[in-house]
Amino acid sequence: MDLVGACRAFVHVSERGSFTVGAAAAHMSQSVASRRVAALERRLGERLFERSSRRARLTPFGRELLPAARRLVLAAEELEHEAATAQRRPVRLAVPDTCPAPALARLAAAALDHGITLDLRTAAPAVRPHLVRSQQVRAALVAVPPDQARWRVPLGLAGVARPRARRLYLETLRPRRTDQGPPRRVWLQPEDDVPHIRDRVTRLRDAVGLRPAQLSVATSLTQAAAEVFSSADLLLCSPLQAREFTLHWRPLGEFESLERTFGLLAAEEGDAERLGTRLGDDLAHCLGAGAEAGTAQTAGTENV
Question: What is the bridge-based pairing of β-strands 151-154 and 139-143?
Answer without folding.
Answer: unpaired
